[in-house]
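Reply to dn_fold:

You asked what the input looked like. This is it:
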Amino acid sequence: MRIERLSGNKASLKRSIDSGTEAQREAVKEIIQNVRQKGDEALFSYTEKFDSVRLADLRVSASEIESAYQELDQGLISIIKEAADNIRFFHEKQKRESWITYKEDGTMLGQKITPIDAVGVYVPGGTAAYPSSVLMNVIPAQTAGVKRIVLISPPDSSGTLPAGVLVAANELGVKEIYKAGGAQAVAALAYGTESINPVDKIIGPGNIYVALAKREVFGYVDIDMIAGPSEIVVLADQTAKANEVAADLLSQAEHDALASSVLVTTSMELAEAVSIAVETQLEDLPRKEIAGPSIEQYGCIYVADTMEEAVSAVNELAPEHLEVLTESPMDLLSSIRHAGAIFLGRYSSEPVGDYFAGPNHVLPTNGTARFSSPLNVDDFVKKSSIISYSEKAFLNSAGKIAAFARLEGLEAHARAIEERLK
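and this is what came back:
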């Protein structure tokens, strides 16, 4: 990994958000239009075209779920259950309550919290399986009180979904699971087909076609975010272990050739040791063909003169994942302003959060941690304002309200108030 002195340089891991090519955008628009017009027929056709499998039914059957349990090791099923418990425990702490307050003049004001009616969860497929994506997307929606949760994912060559995905979904009680992927799946969730009723919000990661489709349907339905490639920044001092830092950097590099792995440290000795350790560990990494280009293009080690300078660089980077591997990590927590998830200390390696600790692993990328948050329970509720004025409160304010309305040139607004004064 390349090493740079931070003094005089600006730390950077930001890449432009991939908005796709013109051909990709047009292809997505065509797919969405076809699904809107032809429904299930289009889904079956695109599944055969893109996933190389001809389906007889889009919906996952009870026998497929039963087979998944037979295929998956019992120990792994127990791990999925325990991870689900941890994730649910964390998200229960995020729940909000409706509230009402009263003023002495009889005014009643409040806020009503209402869950979204229906949410669609997109789970990536292809060569990989992501039961963790099921847990992280479904559980906060359930915690918020969403009654209908639909899971959709592209089938494999045998026409079913990975065992881990099916077991995770079944353990959470998801009743609607469909086999479709890509932009066509997003269109089905947004607009509905004969088999799939539409939802109000679509969440979950996917490839560029999924991302473009989510952008296309946004406004008709809500979406979670347009996520970019994974990012990790490790903030470390001389007490960090070079091999551990290197392993953590590579844990994100293996996600995607566009993933970014950055070390910010006050120790040149650690920087040099980590650079060597990354190259050594890359040699026998199974996903070396992905992690290697990621490290080459988007990996960097920044050496700061002071910890204050290092923390400032971290806040500039606003990373998706931030590990703090210093002698006293808690001492730095208050000065960290921008990060999707913060991992404090040697034993809080980033994969702990990916799979098991409980906080959500759906995080803001590409510097958007400056203004956005991890997926959470609030993403699945709506807030309605409650307003009830007494006669006393109305009479006291009517003239002021009418005057304000006329200031904006809205005479009918003013008259709506004054009509009640007659």
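The CA atoms of residues 4 and 302 lie 5 Å apart.
Hope that clears it up.
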